[in-house]
Amino acid sequence: MTTQSLQERLDAVGQRLTEADQKPFAEMVADVDRIVTWLSGADLSYADEPATCFAAPRS
Amino acid sequence: MSTDLHFLTIAEAAGRIRAGTLSPVALTEAYLDRIAALDGTLHAYIRVLAPEALAEARQAEAEIAAGGWKGPLHGIPLGIKDIYNTAGIATTGHSALFRDHVPAEDATTVRLLRAAGAIVLGKLSTFEFAIGGPSFDLPWPPARNPWNLDRQPGGSSSGSGTAVAAGLCAGAMGSDTGGSIRYPAAWCGIAGHKPTYGLVSRKGVLPLAYSLDHAGPMCWTSEDCALMMQVLAAHDPADPASADVPVPDFAAALSGDLSGLRVGLVRHFYEKDAPSGAETIAALEQAVALLSSLGAKVADITIASRAAYTDLCMLIMEAEAFAIHERHLTATPELYGALARRWIMSGAMVPASAYINAQRLRAKLTAELVARMQDVDVLLMPTWGEPASEFGEAASLRLDVAFTMPFNVTGSPALSVCSGFSSDGLPLSMQIVGRHFEDATVLKVGDAFEKAAGLRDHRPAVPLARAA
What we know:
The complex is a heterodimer of chains A (59) and B (468). With 59 residues, chain A is an all-alpha fold. Chain A contains two helices and no strands. Chain A starts with a helix and ends in a 19-residue tail after the last helix. Chain B has 468 residues and is of the alpha/beta class. Chain B has a single domain, classed as Amidase signature (AS) domain (Amidase signature (AS) enzymes). Chain B has helices at 10-19, 24-42, 50-65, 108-115, 158-166, 182-188, 222-232, 267-273, 278-293, 306-331, 338-345, 352-372, 406-410, 439-453, and strands at 45-48, 77-81, 119-124, 171-176, 191-194, 214-219, 262-265, 297-300, 378-381, 414-421, 427-434.
C-alpha cells in the first residue's frame, strides 16, 4: 500500500497521520486488510448470526 | 510463609488480621514504605493515595476491633489499574487526554472492594487506554519488570503485574481485552484471572472494546484471586453484559483434589500454530506431570487454530476501540501516544461488513469450543510462549506467541499462573481455561498446581537503581 493511498483512506474517515506514524501504521493496516480478506472467504451461512456485544454466554 | 509483611499473600494477611495479630495500619504502612523505596525505579503507580489509604486502614482496624470483620479483604491494601473510575480521584487511562479526568463515582468493582473493607493504595500504570505497548511519550513512564528492570512487565495491566510481584500491594485489579490481565501476570510471575465474560462488572471501567473487555484480579496466588473473585463476582444491572448467575464459594472449591479432572492439552497451539520457547514447553510438561500426579487425566485436544481466534480478536478490538476513540482522535490526536494512536486508528480501516462477519465467525467458533469442552473440564497451554521481552519496538510484545486472545473471543474463564523460571531467572507461564461460569474449577486447578509446585516462595529481588 502506498503512503498516498493510505492517507486517502484516512482522509475518508477524518484521521491524520504524523510522519513518524506512516510506516508502522501502514504495517498495521496491511494486517487489518489481510484479516478482512480472510473474513470475506469465511465459511459462514445465512444462519450464522453475530455474537452480540452485550450478552454474557449464558445470560 | 514470608516474614516480610509486604510479601504476605492476601490469605496469610487476612488470617493474621482476623486473629488480631496483624494491624491493617501496619500492613498499609509496610506497603507505603515499600512503594516509597522502590516505585521510583519500578513506576508501577501513577498516583499513590497515602493519606487516604492510612485513613481507610485506621477505619478497618477500628471496625475489626469492634467485632465487625467483613471478610478476607477487610484491611487488605490493593492497587487499582488507572482505568477504573475512583470517585474524586483522577482516572487517567495513563493518557494526557484524561490527565484531569476525575470521576464522580467509583467503578462498581471498586465500590464492591471498598464495601468488603479493602484499602485502595493507589492507581496503577497501564498501556495507554489499555492498548498499544509500553510507551515513553506519555505523562508517566511505563512500569518495569521487577524480575529484570530491562524487561517489560507485559500489559496492558503493567503496573498491576509489577506491583503484585514486587510487593507494592497485596493484590490488584486488571482488565483484559486481548490478554491484559494474563500477559502481565505471565511476565511478572503472578496469578491473573480473566473471569467468564459477564461475571464481573465493567461499569465505570474505561472501555477499550465492549464485547471483549473483562475486569478481574491479579494476585500472587490463585487462592488470592479466588478471595477477590468472591467479592467481585456479582450481577450488576448497570453493566449491560453482566450475567445474573449464582456465585459459587470460590475459596471452598480450592480443595487441592484433582481426582478425575479431565485436562485438554492444546498442544497444537504451542507446537504448531505458534511454536513456543523450549523452556516454556519444558515447564508446561513438568506441570502436566504434576497435575497428573494429583489425579488429573491429561490428553491432547484440538480446537480451532490460534490464528483464527487471534485475528478475530484483533479486528474486533481495533474496530470497537476506534468507535470509542474516534471523536478524540479526530479532535486531539496529539494527546495520544504514538502506540495507542496507531493501534486505535487502524480500526478506522475495518469495513462494517468485516466487523459483522467477525462477530458471526466468533459465535461459530465459540459454539465449537463449547462443544469440544464437553469432553474436558479445563484446557491447558502456555499463557505466553516466551518470557518477558526487553523494552523496544512494539514487536517485542511478542504477540506471535500469545495464547490469550482466543478466550476473549469465546468469553471463557482463563487463569495465568507461574509455571517455572527461565535459565536467566524470568517467570514462565501456563494458562488454565474453563467452561463458561466454571471459574471456580479454573482457580482450583491453579491453586492445586501452585501448592504442589512450590514456586510461590520465590520473589524478585528488586534493585534500588535501574540497571544501565
